[in-house]
Amino acid sequence: MTARKQIRLGAHFPGVNNTTVWSDPAAGSQIAFDSFAHFARTAERGFFDFLFLAEGLRLREHRGRIHDLDVVGRPDTFTVLAALAGVTGHLGLAGTINTTFNEPYELARQFATLDHLSAGRAAWNMVTSSDAFTGENFRRGGFLAREDRYTRAREGVDVCRRCGTAGPTTPSSPTAAPGCSCATAASPTCTTRRASSTCTAGSRCRAARRATRC
Amino acid sequence: MTRRPVHLAVEVRGAGAHPGAWRAPDSAATRLFSPAYHLLLAQLAHRGGLDVLFLPDSFVPPGDDPGLVRGALDAVAVAARVAPAAPRLGIVATATVTHTEPFHLSKAIATLDFVSSGFAGWQPDVSRTAAEADLFGRKAAADAGTLWREADEAVEVVTALWDSWEDDAEIRDVATGRFVDRDKLHPVGFRGEFFSVAGASITPRPPQGHPLVVLRADEPEALAVAARRADVVRISATHVGAAVAARTRIRDAVAAAGRDPDTVGVWLDVEVLVAPTAAQARERLATLDGYVRTLATVGTAPLRFAGTPAGLGDLVDHAVRSGAADGITLVPLALPGGLEQIVHHAVPHLVGRGLRPERPHGSTLRERLGLARPANVFEKGGVPA
Question: The complex's ipTM?
Answer without folding.
Answer: 0.96
